[in-house]
């Protein structure tokens, strides 16, 4: 919730210059106080569907203890689903048509499982473009996670992601590259974010497209970037929403697949995620598995050894994002901007 500059204290002006939102008393008196409507286009595979809901609902909910959030989950009918996930979707999700009719203030688009080398061959490609095109004209800001970022960079900016020789996988250190941008104002200047991807869009590709990089890792590449206008599309390549356990679940999946001969090699450890003891436990498990022993994955022993070093900053960034959306969104949920807001520079950045 923003400060109100109800007197001439020079600190207010100084904070404004540092990217902190400070309202004038006139603006504060006129501000509409209402709930926000946030869409979640959940494209994750069945096993991760509900975990992903929880992760993004928590990030939005915890981003501000006072504002009220109505979440609107939906998915794309062309994604393959099993019976259980289909029933969950049928019972609890909304249709894109219904969401489009009422409108959204903000939209989050998750990552997805891909099975084709070219994203344009995926079953979700056309319907995803339809959602993104609608959101560009009608939603104040859209936050794209991982694969959704790659899709927008490909179809809107002609920048195709590049497959990496090794999976970018683990918990990586990042730095804020423009601390004055309101999306990263006042967050830690150095912080962790998990990544889990074979593909990368590079800083040069974002910049060629006119997209501004805000957070980057020397090892993992760009994590956070924003469209030229400063707000309307926010790009994540990492997974700040991940639970503490998420990378362990992925490691277990890949290890067990390798043991069944369904993956060519045993997975490496995700970077900076397992401590020495967890590594020793998992290496021992891998050895015994390869020797043909039938034994259970030591999840319960490893779990207490894992640390979460990214969630606070993830909340802070999502809080900044929601705050920016609130300041410029129209009082009517179906319209993206208040009168007087320039869609090409909604935050009025210099
Ligand atoms: C890794 C798995 C397979 C793990 O699921 P499993 O069902 O096998 O897990 P399990 O050990 O049987 O445990 C089930 C319990 O774990 C929870 N659970 C499942 N997945 C979870 C996750 N990711 N994070 C946190 N919890 C998770 C379930 O809700 C359930 O909890 P309860 O018992 O409490 O209900 C799944 O999470 C998954 O498919 N993840 C998707 C990974 C993925 O496809 N990412 C693509 C995005 S990456 C991208 O977009 C870019 C791609 C690129 O560029 O390469
Ligand atoms: N953007 C509006 C709030 C949402 O209706 C305002 O600042 O008054």
Automatic annotation (TrEMBL):
Residues where substrate binds: 167, 196, 253
What enzyme category does the UniProt record give? transferase
- Site note Important for acyl-CoA specificity applies to 113, 147
Its recorded reaction(s) are: L-homoserine + succinyl-CoA = O-succinyl-L-homoserine + CoA
Q: In which pathway does it act?
A: Amino-acid biosynthesis; L-methionine biosynthesis via de novo pathway; O-succinyl-L-homoserine from L-homoserine: step 1/1
Could you list this entry's UniProt keywords, alphabetically sorted.
Answer: Acyltransferase, Amino-acid biosynthesis, Cytoplasm, Methionine biosynthesis, Transferase
Instruction: Name the InterPro entries for this protein.
Output: Class_I_gatase-like, MetA_family
- Site Important for substrate specificity — annotated at 196
Location within or outside the cell: Cytoplasm
Return the HAMAP family for the record: MetA_acyltransf
Explain the purpose of this protein.
Transfers a succinyl group from succinyl-CoA to L-homoserine, forming succinyl-L-homoserine.
Name used for this protein in its record: Homoserine O-succinyltransferase
What gene is this protein translated from? Answer: metAS
């Amino acid at each position: 919730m923003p400060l109100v500059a109800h007197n001439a204290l020079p600190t207010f002006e100084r904070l404004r210059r540092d990217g902190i939102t400070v309202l004038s008393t006139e603006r504060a008196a006129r501000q509409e106080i209402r709930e926000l409507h946030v869409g979640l286009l959940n494209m994750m595979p069945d096993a991760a569907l509900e975990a992903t809901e929880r992760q993004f609902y928590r990030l939005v909910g915890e981003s501000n203890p006072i504002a009220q959030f109505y979440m609107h989950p939906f998915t794309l009918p062309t994604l393959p689903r099993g019976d259980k996930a289909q029933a969950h979707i049928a019972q609890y999700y909304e249709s894109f048509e219904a969401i489009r009719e009422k409108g959204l203030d903000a939209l989050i688009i998750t990552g997805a499982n891909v099975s084709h080398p070219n994203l344009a061959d995926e079953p979700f490609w056309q319907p995803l473009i339809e959602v993104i095109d609608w959101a560009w004209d009608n939603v104040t800001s859209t936050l794209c996670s991982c694969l959704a970022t790659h899709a927008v960079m490909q179809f809107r900016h002609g920048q195709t992601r590049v497959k990496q020789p090794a999976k970018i996988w683990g918990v990586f250190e990042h730095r804020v590259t423009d601390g004055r941008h309101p999306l990263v104002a006042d967050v830690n200047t150095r912080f962790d974010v998990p990544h889990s991807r074979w593909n990368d869009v590079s800083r040069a590709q974002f910049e060629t497209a006119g997209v501004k990089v805000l957070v980057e890792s020397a090892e993992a590449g760009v994590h956070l970037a924003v469209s030229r206008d400063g707000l309307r599309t926010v790009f994540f390549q990492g997974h700040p929403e991940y639970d503490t356990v998420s990378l362990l679940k992925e490691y277990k999946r890949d290890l067990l697949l390798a043991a069944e001969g369904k993956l060519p090699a045993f997975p490496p450890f995700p970077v900076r995620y397992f401590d020495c003891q967890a590594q020793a436990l998992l290496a021992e498990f891998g050895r015994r598995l390869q020797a043909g022993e039938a034994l259970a994955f030591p999840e319960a022993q490893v779990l207490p050894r894992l640390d979460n070093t990214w969630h606070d900053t993830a909340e802070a960034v999502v809080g900044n994002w929601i705050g920016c959306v609130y300041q410029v969104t129209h009082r009517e949920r179906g319209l993206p901007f208040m009168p007087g807001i320039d869609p090409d520079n909604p935050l009025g950045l210099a």
